[in-house]
Specification:
heterodimer, A: Sulfite Oxidase, Chain A, domain 2, 5-stranded mixed β-sheet, 5-stranded antiparallel β-sheet, 23 strands, 17% helix, B: mainly alpha, 8 helices
Chain lengths: 411, 198
């Protein structure tokens, strides 16, 4: 698997936080004062109805160059692309930059006026809702991350931040609690599972425990960051199951079936299953995890001096309570400062001031969540799960800063 | 009903139960019979919801070529470039394996499915990839029978239908650590089980 930048301006991407800091400090021009300029009138008008980024901003999702997808799915890149994590500001991933992993299903082209959601199976009253009806129901907005279960750091010096961690995004999701819809339909006694059904090309489905569906945090979402959910993220409806592996959070939702057994559908079982310790495909919640996003793999430090170490932490079972950072290869750890909100099952920002003296350094972070669960080392993870290179890895990610400022994967 | 405090209590309790089960918003409508049984719906391990139909391995062998399965899975099912449908999991295509298997995808390969219904359901929903949706129920039973037979799981003349398919004993049924009836799987509670590694 090779990662490929969707954009041409590698420099801007690579610089990450440092580039931004540099701009602010240098005020942008040699004279120290940026010259007055204006956008062409017609462009300025065009941007009034629906805004676009400045033409100088070219950050994009990083598409995975995968020849297999070409052969199998007739598309050169398939539908797998990474969030450009190193460029993200704050905890919200812009919807157009939220990672995609679709196993070859392109987004369906759904007219929302014709879309229906059916609640059926072990319910008193199967119900079919229109989008308008769903929007009339009391809505909830919540900030939650969605992370692919395959998002895991792997060894290889050249592996970048995004290659090791780019299958995560965090959005404000708006929708109807699934529990509300299930109560409307009346769940029958004996029911214990829920199957989400999609209208994608291969009509994928996923089953998950009714207990989670009845916790008020599980949403049938039509909104993402204040707008309709984007096609690649599930338009017009998707499941948001906070903290659970991304694979359960089905896109292009058209049905919710209540059952008394897990369905162990194709994508739950076929590729996400291990024989030891694996409850079929189901690991459910993502473990406590964190990663330094600057300085991070694939980036380059312009020279020694002051930097702010920044990163994200998250946990599938609650809020992040603490993040520790080590700048000496794990010998000593300090508490990082949490910046902005630390919400349950949401990406959480941390930062720590750091002055680089120009000598080699190994930087890493570890997350401690509100339940006291601690992000493991590869050794701890391996001892528990049998083999480290498995999916679901939430191990500590060390980055090595070389004496010339290259940042390498030290896993 | 005799009027007593006791009866009143029962009435209240019943009303309470009905209210809990009743609709609050009265939005949405009842689905039609047809809507309740969409053709590509996922089928669970017990096979409930399988359509009527039947097929055999011999019929499946012809369909395997006629319906284009061999184009991606190889003339005998073991050549790729798609995943192997006969023999060991994997494919003839190292890139495919590297991308999709990662060396850890132990559920791939026909012998590694836990339930025969999973195979039926996936062929019905997703195959042939990019053109799915045209196979009849009989054809899906036949193709499933063919693949199960080629992998030594059923006999050549076994007939698969909505009753016999869920009864096929898959060799991998007990191979995974937790099965759907294992309490660690069926009785989900928050933080179970993977977030603790210590």
């Amino acid at each position: 698997m090779h990662a490929k930048r969707a954009t041409t301006r590698r420099q801007v991407l690579k610089g990450g936080g440092a580039a931004l800091v540099g701009l602010a400090a240098g005020a942008g021009t040699a004279s120290g004062q940026t010259l007055r300029t204006t956008m062409p009138d017609n462009l300025a008008r065009e941007l009034m109805a629906y805004g676009r980024r400045s033409r100088y901003v070219e950050t994009g999702r990083i598409t995975l160059d995968n020849k297999v997808n070409m052969q199998m799915h007739g598309d050169p890149y398939g539908f797998d692309a990474l969030t450009p994590l190193g460029e993200q500001m704050g905890i919200i991933t812009p919807a157009p930059l939220h990672f995609i992993s679709s196993h070859g299903d392109p987004p369906p082209d759904v007219d929302p006026a014709k879309h229906r959601l059916m609640i059926h199976g072990m319910v008193e009253r199967p119900l079919v809702f229109t989008m308008d009806e769903l929007k009339r129901l009391p809505s909830v907005s919540r900030i939650n991350f969605i992370e692919c279960l395959a998002n895991r750091p792997q060894p290889g010096e050249e592996r970048t931040l995004e290659q090791n961690h780019g299958l995560i995004g965090c959005s404000e999701w708006t929708g109807v609690p699934l529990s509300l819809l299930l109560k409307e339909a009346g769940v029958k006694n004996g029911a214990s599972w829920v199957v989400g059904e999609s209208l994608g090309r291969t009509q994928q489905a996923r089953s998950f425990p009714l207990g989670k569906a009845m916790m008020d945090d599980t949403l049938v979402a039509y909104g993402q960051n204040g707008e309709p959910v984007q096609p690649h993220n599930g338009y017009p409806l998707r499941l948001v199951i906070p903290g659970f592996e991304g694979k359960f959070q089905l896109k292009w939702l058209r049905g919710i079936k209540v059952t008394d057994q897990p369905y162990v559908t194709y994508w739950e079982h076929s590729s996400f299953t291990r024989r030891e310790r694996s409850p079929l495909g189901a690991y459910w919640e993502q473990g406590p995890k964190s990663v330094i996003t600057h300085p991070a793999g694939g980036q380059r430090l312009p020279g020694h001096g002051y930097f702010t170490i920044v990163g994200f932490a998250w946990s599938g079972t609650g809020a992040v309570s603490r993040v520790e950072v080590s700048t000496d290869g794990g010998r000593t750890w300090q508490n990082a400062e949490i910046e902005g909100p630390a919400l349950p099952m949401a990406m959480t920002r941390f930062k720590l001031p750091w002055t680089w003296d120009g000598s080699e350094a190994v930087l890493q972070s570890r997350c401690i969540d509100e339940r006291g669960d601690v992000q493991p080392t590869p050794e701890e993870y391996g001892a528990f799960w049998g083999e480290y290179a498995a999916p679901h890895g939430n191990v500590i990610q060390p980055w090595r800063v070389t004496s010339v400022g290259r940042v390498l994967n030290a896993l | 009903m005799r009027c007593s405090v006791f009866a009143a209590a029962i009435v209240v309790a019943c009303v309470g139960a009905v209210a809990a089960q009743g609709q609050t918003y009265n939005l949405g409508r009842a689905p039609t019979e047809e809507e309740l049984n969409p053709a590509g719906a996922a089928i669970g391990p017990d096979g409930r919801g399988l359509p009527a139909g039947s097929g055999t391995a011999a019929e499946g062998a012809l369909l395997y070529v006629a319906r284009g399965c061999s184009q991606c899975h190889g003339p005998t099912g073991a050549e790729g470039p798609g995943p192997h449908l006969v023999g060991e999991r994997g494919s003839g295509n190292p890139e495919y394996d590297a991308f999709y298997e990662g060396g850890n995808w132990q559920g791939r390969g026909i012998r590694n499915f836990m339930f025969a219904t999973q195979i039926w359901s996936w062929i019905n929903q997703g195959m042939p990839l990019n053109q799915q949706g045209f196979l009849t129920a009989d054809e899906v039973y036949s193709l499933t029978a063919y693949l199960l037979h080629r992998n030594g799981i059923i006999e050549e003349d076994d007939i698969l239908d909505e009753t016999s398919l869920p009864q096929v004993q898959m060799p991998a049924r007990g191979a995974f650590a937790y099965t759907p009836d294992h309490p660690a799987y069926s009785e989900w509670k928050p933080r179970m089980p993977r977030t603790r590694v210590r």
